[in-house]
């Protein structure tokens, strides 16, 4: 609760102090899974407290939101248009509005990060802040968290029960921050961030989320690639083994639980429903909805409504019969609710980061762009588009890949003095008179 209050205070103060605002919004994105489970636990505020604030920020910078020219931003705007059109025929209008809200407020995160585009230290500060909070938060959760969640479900009812798989995106958001800020840290700072990355990777594994584990692997590979020193890589692997053994000794039951889930997924003798915890039925159901409405889908938010009325077919089990289930997959949700049109835009959005990195490969940005694409492609297999952790990575990477351009100087006043500058591909701002003198920094 204290961290949530601190995060919101910093986010509000960020209207005057951009760097403080970026740290506050990063903190809120990191602890969001536990905030929703243990603090904001009922009514309209359960999911939307942070969303409401981001809407206010977007209202204060409305011109910025609707004049974005980066390819990912344009594609995200187009996806929102497709989703908004799906409200015309959806059987679940309120659910559709909620889904649009979860995507639309991502531009509020972009505002925070774009205002600190010229602050080269902010990414390292975010890495230390979010990485530490996630590491300590994971420790508290696995020592006491499951008991707290049980007490919360007893207090607020089973309809507000927390999905343990979502806890993975607290340490994953810490890992995203470390990936973005590690290159700019000092050698000693990189060592500390590497240790935080290992600890957070351990929490992802203990969470038992197999989708989160795949994303975690991409984060570790990215960190290893960014390490230029062979000695540092060897030390990183050695630290992984040491911390891994320690975690196994202390949390033996949780380690065995995670290993069992992975083993079950790879067990070819089990049926698809058991191996995927029912996700295979959701996949088949989503594809059947797509087949019945191939172009525009069943309408934004309509997956659960159609799932209730879906008859079992070939290959489906009895998962979730008579229960309104969400798609649990961004890809399936987009394909079933927005059809081929929405699916094509979604694919283009995910690929746009790798393409942006390829265009800036001479500046060493291809690995970053490819990393974001791989994370999103794998994450949307097991989660939908609502979590703040992936949006944190998306919007921060957009700033790092695109920076600010001279064509946007007209809107600089609306975002504050830090915004009114050009950021070079290396992350350093050129001299104040660079546009006049033709500085080589450009």
Characteristics:
442 residues, mainly alpha, globular, disordered C terminus
What would you call the quaternary organization? single chain
The arrangement of helices and strands along the chain is HHHHHHHHHHHHHHHHHHHH
State the end-to-end CA separation.
Answer: 45 Å
Shape: globular
Strand tally, please?
A: 0
Helix content: 55-70%
Q: Kindly state the mean pLDDT as a whole number?
A: 84
Poorly predicted spans: 156-160, 405-414, 417-442
Biggest beta sheet summary: none
Strand share of the residues? under 5%
Q: What is the count of DSSP helices, taking H or I runs of 4+ residues? A: 20
Estimated radius of gyration: 22 Å
Q: Which secondary-structure class do the elements indicate?
A: mainly alpha
Explain what this protein looks like in three dimensions.
The protein has 442 residues and is an all-alpha fold. It is 68% helix and 0% strand. Helix 2 packs antiparallel against helix 9 and helix 9 packs parallel to helix 19 (388-402). The longest helix has 35 residues, at 122-156. It is globular, with a radius of gyration of 22 Å. Mean pLDDT is 84; it is low at 156-160, 405-414 and 417-442.
Summary, kept brief:
By secondary structure, the chain is mostly helical.
Topology:
Layout: H1 2-13, H2 18-38, H3 45-60, H4 62-66, H5 71-85, H6 93-104, H7 106-114, H8 122-156, H9 169-181, H10 187-207, H11 210-226, H12 230-250, H13 252-266, H14 272-275, H15 279-292, H16 303-308, H17 330-359, H18 366-382, H19 388-402, H20 434-437
